[in-house]
Structure prediction request, 211 residues.
Amino acid sequence: MRCVPEQKNTRGIRMIIAALLIGGGILYALPHAAQAAGIRVISWLFDALTIGCIVAAVFLLVRYQMTGFQYIVRTKAEYDESGLAAAYAVGAELNVADLPPETLDFVVIRSQGARPGVMECVLGVEQLVSAVPIRRRKADGVTKSALRDKYAAEGQEYVYYDYTVTFLADSALALVFIDGNRYVGVILEPDERMKAYFTQLKPGGINGSKM
Prediction:
């Protein structure tokens, strides 16, 4: 099972990047215009603000325009070698949803530009303890910070990694895995098939997580 999320706010992110670059250009030009008019200004402050705008624009460009992810649910190597995957295959196609969770890995591959993708995350599907739909605004549902605070209130170590591609995404899915003595949240934008797989496998909900 494989999912490649797409940027759903292309126009918004491009407008913000353009605004930052234009703003940086204006900030750079202001001290020169002021000096030409005989007005004394603190030029280093404008220079710092210009650099800040450029750095922010580059960050947004790399993170939301040049970075891509693949979410993959695949059989673990030892089960591939045992022939279990072939036994569950229908014809030449394997439906991993039919396989036991302990035989599967969840993998996230990150790519940037033309560079080949690298594995950022490999977690056993059997380690999944919760699949929680999250929202950007608290009024609309559970947020990333609310999920983090839930584990903190219980005295649990919780870290999360954001693998979404949409700038200011309104909704996403948090997969919470147990990894040793801590919990790891993986924030995704899966397609409907992958979302249904994980939510049916472990019904989500901030009050319904099984620890």
Summary: Residues 10-36 form the longest helix (27 residues).
